[in-house]
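Practice problem: predict the structure.
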Amino acid sequence: MLTHEGGRLVLADGLLTDGQVSLLPGALVGLRLNPDLHQGVDPPETFAIIANGVDQITVAAPNEQGVPFASVAAEGHTYGGDWRFENLTLRGGGHLEVGDPLTIAGHLAITEHGLLTHPRTTTSSPPTQVTTSAAARCRRR
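Answer:
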């Protein structure tokens, strides 16, 4: 889960976190970062994470659409991961806790005691958004 309120400092190719949550160096490489969860565009502008330290996330900037990171990111914006799947199946007691927005283009199947949850929420920390396409089907067995 990457969702967090505001970076301490926005750089041209990433951000310094506020240090409240220590990141495992290199653990985020290959994931995507949405530097403003309230962009209001669909799909949102996201950036590939190419490096991270304990309190810094570095992205490939500009992104694939040529958008500069600093044109989307700003101090105080809520940033988070961008998780997109064609299909997602949770089964055999698999438990997925999602704190970042989750988009599934195809099918979401929760079977054999699988579980999809989100962290505790408050008025300042709303529940996670799970989005499926209009054609997608969600099923629970």
